[in-house]
């Protein structure tokens, strides 16, 4: 897997999540200013929160996967550098 493509996907999803979070905050602020809220609006907000929470969980999984891929690449590069140093020292 190309770590950059995974990271770009994670970055895009993170940006989307942040945009949705700001939208949710705006809705929550408007919600707090309302005197009486119809039950349908409350249910819509609950649905939005559930959607945001699911997206957050997915972003966390994607981020962790990309992070693990990056760690693996770093380990491989470190091993290659050590082997190259040993070969150089022997020659």
Question: What does this molecule look like?
Answer:
The protein is an all-alpha fold and 91 residues long. It has one domain (3-90). The chain contains 2 helices and no strands. Helix 1 runs antiparallel to helix 2. The mean pLDDT is 86. Keywords: Coiled coil.
What are the salient characteristics of this protein?
single chain, mainly alpha
N to C succession of SSEs:
HH
Which ranges are low-confidence, i.e. pLDDT below 50, for 5 or more consecutive residues? none
Structural class: mainly alpha
The major sheet is characterized as: none
> Kindly, what is the distance between the CA atoms of the first and last residues, rounded to a whole number of angstroms?
35 Å
Helix segment count? 2
Rg, alpha carbons:
22 Å
Mean pLDDT: 86
Report the count of strand segments: 0
Number of domains as seen in the coordinates = 1
Task: Tell me the strand percentage band.
Answer: under 5%
Shape: rod-shaped
Coiled coil: 42-80
Keywords: Coiled coil
Summarize the structure in short.
It contains two helices and no strands.
Helix-strand layout with pairing:
Elements: H1 3-33, H2 39-90
Helix pairs in contact: 1-2
